[in-house]
Amino acid sequence: MKDDQSRKEEVALLSVASNTVLVIGKLAVGVLIGSVSIISEAIHSGVDLLAAGIALFSVKTSHAPADSRHPFGHGKIENISGTIEALLIFAAAVWIIVEAVKKLTNPEPIRAVGWGVGVMLVSAAVNFGVSQILFKVGRETDSIALQADAWHLRTDVYTSAGVMVGLALIWMASWLFPERNFYWLDPVVALVVALLIMKAAYDLTTQAAKDLLDVHLPRVEVDWIRQAIRARGEVICGFHDLRTRKAGHFRFVEFHLKVDPGMTVRDSHAITKIISAQIKRQFPATTVTIHVEPCDGKCDEKCFAGCLLGEEERRRIREARTEESDDGRRGGDETRGLPRP
After folding, report:
1. pLDDT at 306
2. Which tens digit of pLDDT belongs to each residue from 16-41?
3. Which among 192, 215, 269, 273 is most buried, taking Cβ atoms within 10 Å?
4. Phi then psi dihedrals of residue 309, to 5 deg
5. How far is it, in rounded angstroms, from Cα 168 to Cα 114?
6. Are strands 286-294 and 238-247 parallel, antiparallel or unpaired?
């Protein structure tokens, strides 16, 4: 069975190949029949091709292990890739708007509309199939780069369908009302395509860039981690300072764990190994860092939220700590006057 890395690289390469074919086909037909909406779609697919190339590079590079210069690994390359892809889509949308406005002020006849409808139909079908594969592998391997590439192609499906409908309307109108000019529909559809592309670019930017700012893991994942820690309430006193972040498909979790002051180092270490293993089983490719602290029964504001003790248990621990302090002071008093050895 293929590993996740091989699957990621194969589907990224599939995206590059499919986009290459579609760019050539759309551009040839768009220039042949003089349709700005098809040419705009060719540009869109060109951007998708560049994005697919970036995604392929990022999934290959992000898998590299941590080294001395990158102690947290290379996972954020996927986030950078997704952000660049989104910015490229913005640029393509602006270009389409400029060209569409020019065409709208001076509509030109479109020749052989049927070719345009055909190439858009093929484009929508191919991109839908490839995007389905990218979504499946991207979600199963938690690859933001592949998911961003999938959204690119899924947007292309919608825009191709829009262009196809616009051309079909022009085709039908030319048969029903041959004396009227409906060529203005072509740049109007191109403008709608551009707006859809910009919306997709905005969504991709927010999704890819948030992990660059070390935003915490999704709330449902953080809640699961909290519950996993709380489930060990019979052997721990509480936890605090839970911090999480993500880089590509790599997760990082760290928190402070409160234990009984009398617990041995061996036992406390065993507990951290159990909790760490449980989190890693639920979220593969996670680095878990746990700092163990003795609990003195005095919960401050940050500690109280994760405290797993009842009031009676906290009182018992405080009294035990007070007795230990008193014994320590008495021992110091008894030895204060003795000569040094």
Report:
1. 75
2. 888 888 888 888 888 887 777 678 77
3. 192
4. -100, 150
5. 8
6. unpaired
